[in-house]
Amino acid sequence: MASPVEQFQIKTIGPELHVAGMDISFTNSALFMILATFVVGVFLTQSMSGRHLVPTRIQSLAELSYEFIANMVRENVGPEGRPYFPFIFSLFMFILVGNLLGMIPYSYTFTSQIIVTFAMAITIFVAITIVALIKHGFHFFTFFFPSGAPVYMAPLLIPIEILSYLSRPVSLSVRLFANMMAGHTMMKVFGGFVVALGVFGVAPLLVLVALTGFEILVAVLQAYVFTILTCIYLYDAIHLH
Amino acid sequence: MIANSVTRWSRRIGLAAAMAAAAVPSWAATDAQGGGGGGLPQLDATTYPTQIFWLIVSFILLYVIMSKVAIPRISDVLEERQERIEDDIETADRLRGEAEAVKAEYEKAVADARSEAHALVRKAMDEIAASHATAEAEAAKKTAETTKAAEARIAEQRTEALESLKSVASEAAAEATVKLTGIKVSDAKVGKAVEAAMQGGA
Questions:
Q1: Which domain holds residue A20?
Q2: How many structural domains does chain B have?
Q3: Is B70 domain-assigned?
Q4: Which residues form a coiled coil (chain B) (predicted)?
Q5: Strand pairing partners for A219?
Q6: ipTM of the predicted structure?
Q7: What pLDDT digit, counting tens, does each position of A200-234 carry?
Q8: Nearest Cβ partner of A3 from B27, B46, B63?
């Protein structure tokens, strides 16, 4: 029987590609990233192609996701968040579809790869820090000292604030990666039970059904959490507390 | 929130690992063959360049599709709908205003007609009353005239009768005086005496 973590194995598809000494071969992970892009692109463009005044079901789904993220940006970042809306909407749809595609049997969940989530989180972190620096210059560093705190607390507060700021990309990426990995591992384990127990496998099968529903919830929730935290960090960068 | 989720996932991983170990005792062996040094496949750093590369490629592709096609298209439709709704509300408001104007006009027309009818009735009544009054006045006048004429005639006849009575009385008095006394009295004197007697007798 296969290991429950074997599903996370990266497998090369097609010929191996090496550029500048780096292996950039097309893999199962890459396939699902491209697939997610494709699904999001087709979903959001084709559903709107009718441009119905009274939306069809699929069109109202697309509009719903648009307005969901538009409201999220408006409420959590404010009107200054408008230029970042395309990025945040793309981010949400990419993670959401990535998570949900992973729920299809035999598919691959690229969001269960720490390197993928970390690459996204660190990019967001660096970009947001740059936005803050451009917007506030050196004034940005007052962010690490909460206003109103007594000055003698500075030696304690500043390292804590810096540490918590630096841990943002870590917590952001680990949260998504760990949720996806743990969920899929658990499902694989229960799948193993179903096979191993034969007729009595019905019991873990029921658990597996419930778990599948739960994992779909987690898939949506984690995409939401990742996106809303990005919005909150962006708010901090624009408004400094 | 962060700490909470960290404990949550670590607990879940622990649980999953324990179950994995219980269910599949041989998983370490299968993992060793393909795991890139054992442990989680996610920690195999040799897969990182390809994953980062394809992540960048697909995300940039997605960002371009979103910002160039999908988002403008959705926001266009939403704006169009918003405009349409506002237009419809405006039209409804205008129509309601028009309906109200028509209603007011109708009510005014009804009120006008009513007051006109009222005026007509009043005018007719006034006319009737007026003609009635003239007729009455004319009748009264005619009656008065007739009465007057009759009275005049009566007075005339009366005076006439009195006149003739006076002459007859004077003649009779003169005759009587002559027969009784043998004195002839002048007509004037007799007339005077008769008048005085008649005046006193009357």
A1: 6-239
A2: 1
A3: no
A4: 75-123
A5: none
A6: 0.88
A7: 888 888 988 999 999 999 999 999 999 999 999 99
A8: B27
pLDDT tens-place string over residues B53-105: 889 999 999 999 989 988 888 888 888 888 999 999 999 999 999 999 999 99
Contacts of A175 in chain B (CB under 8 A): 2, 5-6, 9
Q: How far apart are CA B106 and CA B126, in angstroms?
A: 30
The pLDDT, as a whole number, for residue B163 is 85
Domain count, chain A: 1
Q: What stretches in chain B show pLDDT beneath 50? A: 1, 16-37, 202
- Kindly state whether residue B174 falls inside one of the protein's structural domains: yes
**Does some domain include residue A18?**
yes
Residue A1 lies in a domain: no
Q: Identify the domain containing residue B178 by its residue range.
A: 161-201
Tally of CB atoms within 10 A around B46: 11
**H or E element at residue A212:** helix A202-239
Exposure string over B22-32, b if 16+ CB within 10 A, otherwise e: ebbeebeeebe
* Contact call for A182 and B23, based on CB within 8 A: no
Residue from the list B20, B50, B53 with its beta carbon closest to the beta carbon of A189: B20
Q: Is residue A85 in some structural domain?
A: yes
Judged against a pLDDT cut of 70, whether residue A15 lies above it is answered with yes
Chain B residues near residue A51 by CB distance under 8 angstroms: 73, 76-77, 80
Q: Tokens 């697939």 sit at which residue? A: A35
